[in-house]
Amino acid sequence: MKYCEMNLEHDPIIVVQVLENDPTDESFDEYLDTYLGLLKEREKCSVILDARLSGFLPVRYRIKQGKFLKEHDQLIQERVHGIVFVFKSILTRFMINAIFAIKKPSYPYHLTGDMDEAFTWAKQQLDKPKEIKKAS
């Protein structure tokens, strides 16, 4: 079963909708490979990670995603104008904010529980000049 769906209806905004299915090694690798391919195909984009349906991501996949982000940090910085994380849980958003306060991503980000707000923010980021910086 798929871990997520990639929606390009609002291209150059990539919507990654995490499904209710628990990830498997195969489905998580497919997600990362597809995401990387979409980034390579675009000069610029914003990303909305819609995780409203998702459960808790097991630690091995969080580690894998962290390695992926580190490995592709330069590409992400060059092409991604911002990433919006959409979580229905206020507690989850609070925890992510706390993590980002300690280790800030190298790209602009926004946390919300509302898809309309996510699209507004993602569109605004596309109009801003790109600033490349090192992850802290």
Structural class computed from helices and strand pairing: alpha/beta
How large is the share of residues in beta strands? 15-25%
* Helix percent band: 40-55%
Mean pLDDT: 91
Poorly predicted segments = none
CATH superfamily: STAS domain
Can you tell me the overall shape?
globular
Give the topology string: H per helix, E per strand: EEHEHHEHEH
Give the biggest sheet: 5 strands, mixed
Using only C-alpha atoms, the radius of gyration works out to: 14 Å
Termini, distance in Å?
35 Å
What is the β-strand count?
5
Within the largest sheet, what's the order of strands?
Answer: 1-2-3-4-5
- Overall tally of structural domains: 1
Task: Explain what the structure shows.
This protein is of the alpha/beta class and 136 residues long. It has one domain: Transcription Regulator spoIIAA. Helix content is 46%, strand content 22%. The protein contains five helices and five strands; from the N terminus they run ββαβααβαβα. The chain has helices at 25-41, 59-71, 73-79, 90-102, 115-127; strands at residues 4-10, 13-18, 45-50, 80-86, 109-112. The chain has a five-stranded mixed β-sheet with strand order 1-2-3-4-5, sandwiched between helices. The longest helix has 17 residues, at 25-41. It is globular and about 35 Å long.
